[in-house]
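Bumping with the actual sequence this time:
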Amino acid sequence: MRQNEILACIEELAPKALAAPWDNSGLQIAAERDEIKHIAVTLDPCPESVRKALSIGADFIFTHHPLLLSPKYLNNLEDNYYKVASLLLKNDIPLYSAHTSLDSMPAAFWLADEFNLINRKILEPTGIIDTVQYGIGVCGELRTPLPAEDFLAKLCRTIPHSRPFFNIGKLPQTIKNIAICGGSGSSLLEEAQNFGADCLITGDTKYHTALDVSQQNTDFAIIEVGHHSLEEEMMRRFTLLLQEKLPKVRISFISSKDPFIQIME
């Protein structure tokens, strides 16, 4: 399949128009090759993942996180950015990243789908396409409210994880409204509370945000499940979606490791 057809398909699934102004979604490293037979999908464009992709014969790499978010000199031979750029350029492999452009699409709401949330509202709108509002983060209702203990048990079963989750604040005894934001979503705390969420599930939380929530005299909690946990699973599922859209191209998922390693129980 031609490279421009691949790019068109990806940008239909994750439109660049929905990316945040500060973001760097899009083609990170260009390649002259025209025919693409094998796409590797992975969370981060790190040397280990790129080498794995090359070892299985991938000729196109798709990641969630961009190679660079700001300009940088590639003048250090030991720098990971240089290593990735060098590997890709030497092998004529294009690298494409869909960061906030993918965060704004339904693929990022896989956890909301697992909980079968209804009456959904976008936390941070990023754009309208064909009269449909898209954005980052979602808040919705459980069809049947759950006791907090049952809700937490289902959450732990649903999200693949290698380290503990953290509860910040006071979780209500019964959970009905859930806000979810992959990656670092503590900036959407106010929006989640304004929509009546009982909790905000996200990957990262700033300390002072956590401190403020812990001191609130309300039944509301942030549940921090790890940046990697939410987005690794999103990319695994996106691999399946991409395979449906591109049946003539081989699509492989390259798993990655959470950089946060638990060192004590």
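The tokens above came from a reply further down the thread. The chain has two domains: 3-99, 104-226.
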